[in-house]
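Duplicate of #3305? Posting structure anyway:
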């Protein structure tokens, strides 16, 4: 805040118009008064001894996460999803699986990335007892099932993927946002990821405080979040190593999606967001000194502007992860562009000729409606989304899974019955 004060004093000393200065001071005071209001409202039920974190319900956790990813930190949550998906390719068993499925090539990579993004967005944005959440998770379970049965995807691999989704949210917010997450917000993230892991039938036996262990369970969602994050980091340290399939994963999902002149810079930017273990495992280059300084300047400036000069995002400008209604013409859900290929995007004047569309065209991207139905502009169906060979398959298995998932959704306080155990964080 001293920088702001110094700036105002300098303006006054330079005989700045008093009216202009008064308006600026009033605006900064308004930002300061409103900037932390959402955080305070989120924390209010659980501070000053009102309620323990163990009493937080699944629906409360969902409401908190919705505010964080749609209003408070939409940029960080979006980037965290992308980074977690990238890091999955740094685990050799996972990159090997991607390579042998026949889908890990430049022809299919664009759609695979969008399909995965959609399933994650659907599961992260919908209430646990909703049809869309249950269908998204059931579809993920079906697509993973045959590989799990063949032990080509291990339980530890899936737990790492789940944990990385959580860890990257915390990492990106701490590194790039105007404030960090509170314990209440981390508790909500822990509750969500615990529920998602349960619905994906991922065992938590390797975590020290799992209910079968002597500690007898986690105290609350915060306890679970910290423990899962620590295990995820340790797992990467143990298994992440450079392999040919890791390199192939990056070349397919990163290099092939970019114009040639951008690849070196983007690879270094991605490397800047990874620790040395995952950077080496993925074969990415560390950033140059100039790029490091530029990134640091941009992040510092963004933090400063958001904290002191930007009013909080109002609900009318919420960043919705998925469309809330179906395409009335097709009964399917459309998607917003997230790459150079317009998968599931409904052709419209804005999607074809708007500023975003024109920007994508500059870099060689396709417009919605290109090649007829090549990019499925009619939308996606959560019951059939995924690789073309699996299209329309698994409906019976998914139906049973959906019933089970929705049944679990009625649970309210997942940690209310957990025994209190000793919990320490190692430095």
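Output from current build:
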């Amino acid at each position: 805040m001293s920088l702001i004060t110094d700036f105002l004093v300098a303006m006054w000393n330079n005989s700045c118009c008093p009216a202009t200065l008064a308006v600026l001071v009033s605006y900064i005071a308004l930002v300061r008064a409103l900037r932390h209001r959402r955080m305070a409202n989120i924390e209010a039920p659980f501070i000053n001894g009102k309620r323990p974190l163990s009493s937080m319900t699944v629906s409360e956790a969902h409401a908190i996460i919705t505010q964080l990813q749609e209003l408070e930190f939409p940029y960080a949550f979006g980037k965290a999803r992308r980074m977690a998906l990238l890091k999955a390719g740094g685990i050799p068993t996972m990159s090997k699986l991607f390579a042998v499925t026949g889908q890990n090539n430049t022809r299919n990579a664009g759609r695979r990335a969008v399909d995965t993004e959609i399933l994650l967005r659907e599961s992260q944005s919908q209430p646990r007892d909703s049809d869309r959440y249950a269908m998204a998770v059931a579809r993920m379970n079906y697509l993973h099932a045959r590989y799990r049965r063949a032990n080509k995807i291990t339980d530890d691999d899936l737990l790492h993927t789940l944990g990385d989704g959580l860890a990257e949210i915390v990492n990106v917010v701490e590194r790039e946002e105007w404030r960090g997450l509170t314990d209440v917000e981390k508790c909500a993230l822990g509750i969500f990821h615990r529920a998602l892991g349960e619905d994906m039938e991922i065992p938590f036996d390797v975590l020290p405080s799992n209910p079968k262990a002597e500690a007898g369970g986690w105290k609350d969602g915060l306890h679970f979040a910290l423990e899962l994050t620590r295990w995820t980091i340790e797992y990467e340290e143990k298994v992440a190593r450079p392999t040919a399939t890791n390199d192939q994963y990056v070349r397919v999902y990163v290099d092939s999606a970019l114009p040639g002149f951008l690849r070196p810079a983007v690879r270094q930017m991605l490397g800047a967001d990874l620790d040395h273990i995952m950077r080496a495992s993925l074969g990415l280059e560390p950033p140059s000194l100039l790029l490091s300084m530029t990134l640091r300047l941009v992040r510092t400036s963004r933090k400063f502007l958001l904290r002191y000069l930007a009013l909080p995002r109002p609900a009318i400008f919420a960043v919705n992860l998925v469309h809330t209604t179906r395409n009335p013409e097709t009964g399917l859900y459309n998607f917003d562009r997230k790459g150079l290929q317009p998968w599931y995007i409904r052709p419209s004047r804005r999607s074809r000729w708007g500023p975003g569309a024109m920007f994508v065209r500059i870099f060689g991207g396709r417009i919605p409606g290109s090649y007829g139905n090549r990019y499925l502009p009619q939308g996606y169906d959560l019951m059939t989304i995924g690789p073309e060979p699996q299209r329309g398959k698994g409906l019976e298995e998914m139906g049973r899974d959906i019933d089970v998932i929705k049944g679990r959704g009625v649970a309210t306080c997942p940690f209310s019955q957990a025994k209190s155990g000793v919990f320490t964080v190692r430095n």
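Confirmed duplicate; merging threads. The longest helix spans residues 155-176. The chain is about 55% helix and 0% strand.
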